[in-house]
Amino acid sequence: MANAHCICPKFLEAHIKDPLTYTNVFVGQFLESPDQIVFDHQEVLASEYLNSVKDDQDAFQNYNVWKKLLDAQPQGKTLISNAHCTSSSFETVFNTINSAITRHDKAIVTCDNNHYGPFIGKIQSNGINLLNLNNLNCRPIQVPNQRIIGHTNFENDLDWVLERTGRTCRKKYSEDDDNDHVRDLLDAKGYSVRDQTREGRSASGKSSGELDILIENCGHLYTVIEAMKLSTMKESYIDEHYLKLTTNYNPMSVKRTYLVTYYTGKNFADWWRKYVDYISTLAPSKISSRTDTKNLSTEEADTKLHGLKKLYNHISIAGELSTCVHYAVRIET
Fold it and tell me: DSSP E strands: which ranges in the chain?
């Protein structure tokens, strides 16, 4: 599981001079892994890191060596975000990780979770993990229908479920039939799944509508999966479902959602390229009715699975960053 870590200055101050923690965490966990390290472009965190170690020679030396090793990493290892206006180092850390554009799981690395008590509601709703020395290397607890899940782990399961759906479902099946298949496989993997729930509001705003699949985590809404069945590019149909997912039927403003296409046409590769181009240049007005919506960026991901494509679309609505993961699965027969 890859994380985008934002390191609390207090954590760095407390642990970077410890030889074991420096070797295992700062070098082993943070550098010698696919994880990202997140800074703010205002350089508030960089300044606070230096201030936290300037009076301790060992800590100062370890930090400088670690920073040089980090700067020598390939492009993409360091992620630059936005801290906005802050009144404390803890708010700087929260704003920086919350604003980061990444497909990795987001994490704050801290020595005391209580420091982030004022932000705990948004930390939970935005899917940000609080990590410390005790759980940096922990994996999610897998208890049926009550499990702590990260985006990466959930998507690994969803990759497999959709690939199986493409191989076992038929083109003649309805969209609801395909959704039932996805729901049953996710349920078998231990997720708490609800489907066709009348929540949110319709495109007209006059009545409630149906969400395709909801995933809950320990009784709370975790994410929303919306599905559509296509054999060709139908821009208006895509727009309708995307708007439904991001605005109309996302009453809890979940920060990572999923839009799945069951593709039944003849040229999957050609259709997918057109789809990627369309989402990459999609007008903000087709994502949300709010005028302060932005279509920030897209990035494709290699699923390494037959007949399955994946695209991350990072968007901003009312200043709140969220990600929609677009899947396309080829229905083979």
Answer: 3-7, 36-40, 78-81, 105-109, 128-131, 192-199, 209-217, 220-230, 256-263, 294-301, 308-317, 320-330
